[in-house]
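2024-03-11 09:14:02 INFO queue: dequeued item ABC-2 type transport system ATP-binding protein, len=324
2024-03-11 09:14:02 INFO validating residues
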Amino acid sequence: MSDYAIELDNLTRTFRSGQGKTRRAVDQLSLRIERGEMFGLLGPNGAGKTSTVKILMTVLLPTSGHARILGDDVVKQVERVRHRTGVILGGDTGLYARLSARDNLLLFADLYGIPYRDQRRRIGELLDVVGLLKSERTRVETFSRGMKQRLHIARGLLHDPEVVILDEPSNGIDPVGARELRDLVRGTVRNGRTVLMTTHYMFEADELCDRVAVMRDGKKIAEGTPESLKKQTDGQVVLSLDIIGVGEPELDRLRRLPGIRSLSVTAVDGSQRLDLHCDQQTDITAAVMTELRHLSVLRVAKREPTLEDAYVSLVSGSGGTWTS
Ligand SMILES: Nc1ncnc2c1ncn2[C@@H]1O[C@H](COP(=O)(O)OP(=O)(O)OP(=O)(O)O)[C@@H](O)[C@H]1O
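2024-03-11 09:14:37 INFO prediction written
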């Protein structure tokens, strides 16, 4: 029996991307996830998270390398892997909109081969813990996104899997609903199980995960506890500017300034938020303002880096890997 719940060894998946070129969606990815651990897979769009998860779900074949769940190979022991793994994908697919919550679960209980005598009790318990007992007879097409996500959770736990794969749990859900969902993930979904979760939100991973791995361009560029990721920004400060009209030429010049480690730009209410990750020792405010003198700078502030900054710095940086 394997000591690990999930093991990836040099997992690689390539896709053809037109004109005979190939693209490595997952590139020599190796990971060890302990039993009972809640593990976060992070990365920007296109990093390779979904491809990795699909391989673990046994719906996408790796090009090379191996993936095992509880010691079972995801290519050679598909039935065993599916039986022991629960998949919670969320969104609009995977549920029957014209059926009620309860009828959806009855249908999937049949598909999972749950004995008829156990189905009603199990479904009742799950509807209760995900907070849908009052709406059990309501058609899913009238459900809010948050309610659908709760039903996805119930569906994924029906056969009481030992390992759960959870894709973007709070995607598209309002902040209050997202907080409630995180509580549900922490309690009901985890409940002694191993959970592999993908997310775009660093703070979500920080709240829920024991360890995280950050992917970029199919590769693992960082792995460790959220705490150790935060330490990456020790000795740094963020100079944050709201600005109009900043483009690549200015960003290029800023990147070359001594003391700037990395930078990121996001659109905010008709302007741009430029965050510069700088060494604490060097005050580069004057040099930055000189580079930007031809643009409208609406606001300048200095702040302590957050975990999100550590993540942004990693995925936008020039690529030193970090493991702890
Ligand atoms: N079926 C496919 N055919 C061709 N290319 C693909 C296919 N699936 C994924 N890719 C490519 O592989 C890369 C990784 O995609 P993947 O969906 O795994 O990333 P991701 O980290 O899950 O991104 P997102 O957060 O946007 O879902 C991307 O460049 C994507 O375009």
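2024-03-11 09:14:37 INFO annotate: The CA atoms of residues 68 and 77 lie 9 Å apart.
2024-03-11 09:14:38 INFO item closed
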